Amino acid sequence: MDISAIINVFEQYPVVWLLSILLFSLLVGSFLNVVIYRLPVMLENAWRSECEILLELPSQRPITDKNAALTQDAQTQCAETKHETFNLIIPNSHCQNCKSPIKPWFNIPILGWLMLQGKCANCAQKISARYPFIEALTGALGLVAAWQFGVSSETLWALIFTYFLICMCFIDFDTMLLPDQLTLPLLWLGLLANLNSTFVALDDAVLGALFGYLSLWLVFQLFKLVTGKEGMGYGDFKLLAALGAWMGWQSLLVIILISSIVGAVLGIVLLKLRNQDQQQPIPFGPFLVIAGWIAFYWRTDIIDFYLKHWVA
Predict the structure, then answer these.
(1) Average pLDDT over the chain, rounded to whole?
(2) How confident is the model at residue 63 (pLDDT cuts 50, 70, 90)?
(3) Cis bond leading into 91, ω under 30°?
(4) What residues form the membrane-spanning segments (predicted)?
(5) CB contact at 8 A, 63 and 69
(6) Max avg pLDDT among 4-13, 47-56, 84-93, 189-198
(7) Spatial distance between the Cα atoms of 140 and 23, rounded to a whole number of angstroms
(8) Do the Cβ atoms of 236 and 285 come closer than 8 Å?
(9) Can you state the angle between helices 153-175 and 14-55, rounded to 10 degrees?
(10) Which residue has the higher pLDDT, 75 or 4?
């Protein structure tokens, strides 16, 4: 069966199309869990290795548990044990407590966690409910893309956009880090997607990337000049630049406004739930991600609503 025949089946049977995207997105969500957990650890290992070379220190074993990063015990353990390979593929999925491998059928998105009843089959250590949540979230947002754009190349681009955003949202939430390994590819993919004006004209996409970066960079510099503090990270600049590359410069104000509203509401909720001091920083990336995803689908409706109800 060739590609055209498959496309014809999808067009004739929309339910098959939606179910296919749902299943595919659930599988991708399972992989996103790996990226969200391992990429920060991989970056930490790379930074430590560079520091060892620069300072001519003895080489240490790479960290394989992000909860152990930057601790003295982990550094001592690294010095006493041999090197291990740690990337997105190796080692295989295993329990973080007893290190026993997870059987393939327990890696089935959502169902695997349910079959395990949220516990390791070997040591009964609790497995975070965030794993099936991210899988379900990826599946649901994948369905939105498939429903919104139908059987088209726009859906494929929207899926890529969504998967990147989910990764960055949770990594920034965990580590207050937006890796260049995600923000920069997302920016270039946005320009590539709009090479043929898929979502916006290419010149609007280029200006969106430029103004997206400069707008937050200027706010950062002004805030630092007035307060002597850094209000956000450079990853936020690159993320907004990437969003501008996908949606054009016209969407930037909408994204900033939505992210500010979302940040104000969720920021207060997070502070209350965690009982945190108001001076403790909260990552801005997740708010940009939420605002960017909303604007990707409904920015025109939001602008039209504003012009109709708030502008005389």
Answers:
(1) 86
(2) low
(3) yes
(4) 15-39, 131-149, 155-173, 185-202, 208-227, 239-270, 282-298
(5) yes
(6) 189-198
(7) 10
(8) yes
(9) 40
(10) 4
- Which domain, by its residues, includes 103? 3-115
pTM of the model: 0.88
Q: Is 145 contained in some domain?
A: no
> Distance (Å, rounded) from C-alpha 45 to C-alpha 23?
33
User: Domain ends where: 87, 115, 143?
Assistant: 115
pLDDT of residue 107: 87
Among the listed residues 293, 275, 270, the one whose alpha carbon sits nearest the alpha carbon of residue 169: 293
Q: Whole-angstrom Cα distance, residue 179 to residue 234? A: 10
Two structure tokens written together for 1: 């069966």
Side-chain half-sphere exposure of 104, counting CA atoms within 13 A: 0
Domain count, the chain: 2
Amino acid at 281: P
163: left (phi over 0), alpha (psi -120 to 50) or beta: alpha
Rounded CA gap, 265 and 287, in Å? Answer: 10
Please, how many CA atoms are within 13 Å of residue 112, restricted to the half-sphere of its CB?
A: 21
Nearest to 257 by CA among 303, 213, 199, 222: 303
